[in-house]
Amino acid sequence: MAEYLAERGQLGRHDIAVLTDTVRGRRVRIARRGATVLSFELPTGQGVRDIADGYRDAGELDSRPSSRFAIMVPFANRIADARYLFEGEPYDLQPGVEGAARAARHGFVRGVDFELAGLSADAHAARAVFATQAIRPGVHPGYPFAIDLEIAYALDATGLTLEAIMRNVGEQAAPCFFGWHPYFRLSETPIDGWELQIPADSVVRTDSDFIPLPGDAAKLPLAHAPELDFRQWQPIGPRELNHAFADLRYDTDGRARTRLREAGSELAIAVWQTAGVMLAFTADTVTRDVRRAVALEPMESWADAFNRPDCAEAIRLAPGAERRFTCGVEIEGP
């Protein structure tokens, strides 16, 4: 049998890609809807474990509770009051909506059926490429820009890699950046006993709506926030996390690795990224299985980045330009 397999499958009416590492007994299922990871199975001493706390059936994939494994483009997390300024022009993502109903979160592609543009396997990896041209002027209020998006997954000996390619195919510069919203469930035990390590030197301070504070006030050195300091392994305990961590430390291969493990277990993962911030969320407000999973979200830039002068250069995509963001999940044990 081949070491890697890349095959088509189904989840109800939804087409999916199935990537398999036959040697290590690992399998990843990814839906065309949203280019959404559904499961990541691997063998453990207690049998096969699905470490991805993803959508369990076609109904959940349709309704998308808690944005599990969402691809977040052209923005990740929140935009304050669903309004932003870009190059001096104001934009409203929810025209005519008033009060508490105003909310802009996680971009525009969670409900899009991507094209499965490539499916292949060789001696080194199994791969699936998803593409969409759904972000176009006139489709999304307050976003008159044209972005082609490609999401490439590769399952290899180390784990799962995701590469996002964003291309501005319009005639004007566009605000655009990438984020990923995976949830991980290492066991059926409460997350309080799990341990977390985040290689960051600062945490992003926010208001009650999780919008970062203006300017330099948004960044707090972890030396002044010991309750959020995970630079060394720490039990999650009763802490409620919904925090972005900045000033990441990178290993010699250019990857910043946020690690999660269950205390006393051999199972451990590292969520890595090559730039940006890491948002850790302990799922205290989800619509299913509260505090039974941990979301570790690599983001190319900050929440409300469209409104932050200190993020303007990082999110600006010139006409004809493309930008790539790479992240992934390494299996460190067993």
Please explain how this structure is put together:
By secondary structure, the protein is mainly β. 3% of the residues lie in helices and 46% in strands. It has one domain: Distorted Sandwich (Beta-galactosidase, Chain A, domain 5).
Output the keywords.
mainly beta, six-stranded antiparallel sheet, Beta-galactosidase, Chain A, domain 5, 28 strands, single chain, 3% helix, globular, nine-stranded antiparallel sheet, 334 residues, 46% strand
Main sheet summary: 9 strands, antiparallel
Strand order of the largest sheet: 11-12-13-14-28-24-23-18-21
Count of DSSP strands: 28
Distance between the termini: 23 Å
- CATH class (first level) name: Mainly Beta
Number of helices: 2
Query: Into which percent range does the helicity of residues fall?
Result: under 10%
